[in-house]
Amino acid sequence: xxxxxxxxLRDCRExxxxxxxxxxxxxxxLTGIVWLHRKMQxxxxxxxxxxxxxxxxxxxAGVMIFAEPRFGTAILTDRDLAGIADANDxxxxxxxxxxxxxxxxxxxxxxxxxxxxxxxxxxxKAAERLNGRFLPRVRVLxxxxxxxxTTFTQGEDNALRALVPSLPRSEERQLLVVGCxxxxxxxQFRRCFDALGIGPVRFLPARRAADLPAVGPGTLLLAxxxxxxxxxxxxxxxxxxxxxxxxxxGAEGTTAWLTTAAQSFGVPAERVRTVLAPLEExxxxxxxxxxxxxxxxxxxxxxxxxxxxxxxxxLNREMGMELVExxxxxxxxxxxGEELPLLPAGVTLSEGQDVERQLERVRAAQPDITVCGLGLxxxxxxxxxxxxxSIELVFTPIHGYDQCGDLAEVFARPLxxxxxxxx
Length: 423
Prior knowledge:
Rossmann fold; 17 helices; four-stranded parallel beta sheet; 3 domains; globular; 44% helix; 423 residues
């Protein structure tokens, strides 16, 4: 059971965390390929897995069979799983055929899955072997997207972490934004940084995987996503320094995020206000039309994407929603430490998942909206509860000032749908 709210708590940093270790209901880390392959336009993601893995990625991406996306699956057959065929020889053959057919590929990711890890296929060794054959034209990297080891957004973290050893070294003072952003959002942030006089600014991942940013003691890290903790730790080990900040969701979060960068580069406070105030005012105007819809509504966030804490902060502070429970797959205090003080004291925080127990709390609370995975949404809707798919919050551009209205609408839309169905 969750701890009862205590009046003596000053903010959410002191709130006891309900830690659950039971059955989970989440996508595996392979799902991250869906947005990573769109971002890195010269990279290819080759999943070494089963037909089930292929169907998952194909369905999640919505790619038609005659399209030529930047991902695919090297399917492990019964012969591979039984050890009759040499899986390493087969993988080398598939990679050679792929790279011959697609000369635009400069970075090839070998992505581990449950089947490849069950048969102990060493993709790190395979990448090393293939690099000896294809470097410098193509760099081959490996990471795990297995559902045994990863959940949903951890796939992106593992992919970016795989890039870190290849980053060149630099002593230059620079800002490195870590975490995949839609191109339109990246362009908006770049304009903000330019207006503030912050630079040079680089992004990981870049739009071309071959354009690797340098890293070193002069590199300041600004995380754009709360789920890139292992990548950040690997960059810190290379000498970079993390700038702790709330995340750029909503007007308040975006201002805080940009201000953190500005202060680290010594930008005068007056210039920060001059540049950001009009943008924040416009963002707040876009939020106003949804506040009446969301204010006072009770929200339950189930653990799925690790976006839960910053989204809860935005919805509570800027949209007036009441937080019933905020769940997250993993509470990484290094990455979300600046979000905790902004959450109301006494809110129930949960880490990990025990699906049945969590569903019991949802049914008992009867929230106005429940944010959860696809596998739970339909059953809850059938019980009369209103839900929002958490996966949509990863696929949709929701960072920054210009996306504030879109972010609020994501949560207002299911409530409006429920109202229309009730008429």
